[in-house]
């Protein structure tokens, strides 16, 4: 797990910087402090509390067939409402693991492969996306080796990112892709790309003539019993949605990412995320499960940028080994006001997730404290 902090900074951070004044969550919790495990978790939270830089968070894990979920702080600054297992958070880039599964399942249904080029599924005005004689394939989109930029150059997130993303249309994405510029030969270099993953989702939406969120909910979330994992919440569900914060200041929700929805549009709860993690360990015996298993197979390594042990799967990052049967699968997410983590240790049959309702641009202090809490909880559960 030594490279976890590095991965956090690469995958979740949109605006890297330093947070001058760290905040600690209010001294509120639903931890019953009854068992030794309850008390041990609480002690670790207290150890890192002053550096977590959040208004509130929910922490949950699954081990030995049992789930344990704890809420700390507040859903909204000053509200006194403690977040819990069923509090909704924006889960940001964890969405990408769902996107990869949905894409692989769709390709399988069409008799296609992740090694097939994306060219036939793009408008004719877009040139063949290639470099060094290598065309971009679906695999390249899903494992961040396409050479497509982190964000498209015709999208600015500096002023009002929530509005800019919501207005980023399919037409704008294709306008950007018309330039046909790749930063590297596909399949040679890890370059984390919201654009590439967004493009995968846009292709799914176009081919199936429905929104990406609807397609994902129908094909992946609901079949896995994840009824609290979705792109859009109804009025009743919004009552369980935490506010997002930067420091203690509320920030706008990312209601939509437009044509980049597949990069991070989902909302979910810790209860649902744990259920999802368990399904990753034990995929169903059907077409969906086949796609989930495919997404866990290492497809790419880049020792220079990621270290010797880290492998990139489809949608997932394998932090421990290049063997899918002994994997520690990881993804995190960062939106305007939320930061989320999901770690699935397949060999130990362990799932850990933490969802924060504050995100401050991936500052070093914040990222290190949150990674340290993750690591301490994992050590506790060994």
UniProtKB/TrEMBL annotation:
Residues 44-372 form the Beta-lactamase-related domain. Belongs to the beta-lactamase family. This is Beta-lactamase. Transmembrane segments: none annotated. It comes from the Bacteria.
């Amino acid at each position: 797990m030594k490279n976890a902090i590095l991965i956090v900074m690469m995958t979740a951070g949109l605006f890297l910087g330093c947070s001058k004044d760290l905040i600690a969550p209010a001294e509120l919790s639903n931890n019953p402090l009854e068992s030794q495990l309850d008390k041990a978790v609480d002690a670790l939270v207290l150890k890192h509390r002053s550096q977590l830089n959040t208004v509130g968070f929910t922490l949950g894990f699954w081990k030995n067939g049992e789930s344990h979920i704890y809420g700390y702080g507040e859903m909204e600054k000053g509200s006194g409402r403690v977040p819990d297992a069923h509090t909704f958070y924006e889960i940001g880039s964890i969405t990408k693991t769902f996107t990869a599964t949905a894409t692989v399942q769709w390709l399988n249904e069409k008799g296609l492969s992740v090694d097939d080029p994306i060219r036939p599924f793009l408008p004719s005005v877009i040139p063949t996306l290639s470099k060094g004689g290598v065309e971009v394939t679906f695999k390249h989109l899903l494992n961040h080796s396409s050479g497509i930029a982190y964000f498209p150059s015709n999208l600015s997130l500096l002023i009002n990112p929530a509005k800019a993303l919501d207005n980023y249309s399919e037409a704008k994405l294709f306008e950007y892709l018309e330039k046909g510029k790749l930063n590297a030969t596909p399949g040679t270099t890890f370059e984390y790309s919201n654009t590439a993953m967004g493009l995968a989702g846009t292709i799914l939406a176009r081919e199936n003539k429905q929104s990406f969120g609807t397609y994902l909910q129908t094909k992946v979330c609901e079949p896995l019993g994840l009824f609290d994992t979705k792109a859009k919440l109804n009025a009743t569900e919004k009552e369980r949605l935490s506010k997002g914060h930067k420091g203690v200041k509320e920030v706008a929700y990312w209601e939509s990412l437009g044509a980049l929805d597949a990069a991070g549009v989902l909302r979910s709860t810790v209860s649902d995320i744990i259920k999802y993690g368990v399904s990753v360990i034990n995929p169903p015996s059907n077409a969906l499960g086949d796609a989930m298993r495919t997404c866990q197979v290492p497809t790419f390594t880049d020792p220079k940028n990621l270290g010797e042990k880290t492998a990139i799967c489809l949608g997932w990052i394998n932090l421990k080994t290049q063997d899918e049967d002994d994997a520690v699968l990881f993804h995190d997410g960062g939106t305007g006001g939320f930061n989320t983590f999901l770690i699935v240790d397949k060999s130990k049959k362990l799932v850990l997730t933490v969802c924060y309702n504050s995100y401050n641009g991936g500052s070093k202090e914040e990222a290190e404290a949150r990674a340290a809490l993750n690591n301490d909880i994992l050590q506790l559960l060994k």
